[in-house]
Design goal:
Endonuclease Iii, domain 2, 12 helices, 59% helix, 0% strand
Length: 216
């Protein structure tokens, strides 16, 4: 549920994040929608930095959807092993690419319904692909977004899908993708999970958590 004052504060929060992170973008390196889809799958329980270390060799070995669909699972597992949960990830990537070939001619679809019907693809991944690969409105709710939206007071839910729906109600579609990338940047730089730098945070005047802690 969207808190009562969330609609009032969202505008100033968006503008402040724009000032702080004017060039915010996805930190995963990719050239095609398929590469972004696979990179996002690999990033589950893994840092983007690590994924970016793995994907150059991965995409050189498997240059297209057909190559991934026909991959030997053991070989694929070895290449992506350092990203963690590599067996499940390899299996899902192969299954997903087979589905892409069968249902979409090897192309990544550009709708939420079609993306989330693919093996291993949830709403977070689908939103990222829709926003960054296809330029569509997207509300990516990762651990940073969950933490920051709750601390600031933009939602009172910890469920990613409910948070996504809350953000859809208050964040304009034209701002959605960049806003979510900026939450990630701010979560990494300032509003960290363990030691948030509240005193130096320029969002503190809008932050419910800051007020609750009696810092204001």
């Amino acid at each position: 549920m969207v808190p009562e004052n969330a609609k009032k504060k969202i505008g100033p929060v968006i503008e402040e994040l724009k000032k702080l992170y004017p060039d915010a973008q996805c930190s995963l390196r990719y050239e095609t929608p398929l590469q972004l889809l696979i990179s996002t799958r690999l990033s589950a329980q893994c840092t983007d930095v690590r994924v970016n270390m793995v994907t150059p060799a991965l995409f050189a070995r498997y240059p297209d959807c057909k190559a991934f669909a026909e991959a030997d699972q053991a070989e694929l597992e070895e290449i992506i092993k350092s990203t963690g949960f590599f067996r499940a990830k390899a299996r899902n990537i192969i299954d997903c690419c087979n589905q892409l070939l069968e249902r979409h001619g090897g192309e990544v679809p550009d709708t939420m319904e079609e993306l989330t019907a693919l093996a291993g693809v949830g709403r977070k991944t689908a939103n990222l692909v829709l926003g960054d690969a296809f330029g569509k409105p997207s509300y990516v709710v990762d651990t940073h977004a969950i933490r920051l939206t709750n601390r600031i007071g933009l939602t009172d839910s910890s469920d990613p899908e409910k948070i996504e729906q809350d953000l859809r109600k208050i964040v304009p579609e034209s701002e959605s993708g960049d806003f979510c990338h900026r939450l990630v940047d701010h979560g990494r730089a300032v509003c960290r999970a363990q030691k948030p730098d509240c005193e130096n945070c320029t969002l503190k005047q809008y932050c419910d958590e800051y007020t609750k802690r009696g810092m204001k």
